[in-house]
Design brief:
This protein is an all-alpha fold. About 80% of the residues lie in helices and about 0% in strands. The protein starts with a helix and ends with a helix.
Length: about 70
């Protein structure tokens, strides 16, 4: 019985290692390098910040145009 229980434990460990490999390090099923996420997130955050800045600039220009139209320039 102990030998069978040990075999079950080994089988479970092999399954867990296989699942971790395919979910973390295999590019077809998961990420090829899970540590690259930080650089991707930083690039995405910079893009979002740039878009927000563009929107704020557009709003400021719109307000200036409306003010100029209301003053009659």
């Amino acid at each position: 019985m102990k030998k069978a229980f040990g075999m079950v434990e080994i089988l479970l460990v092999i399954i867990v290692i296989t699942v971790l490999y395919f979910t973390c390090f295999h590019s077809k099923y998961g990420r090829s390098n899970p540590f690259d996420d930080n650089s991707n997130l930083n690039n995405q955050q910079e893009m979002i910040d740039n878009k927000i800045q563009d929107i704020e600039n557009t709003k400021a220009l719109k307000q200036k145009i409306e003010d100029n139209l209301n003053k009659g320039y």
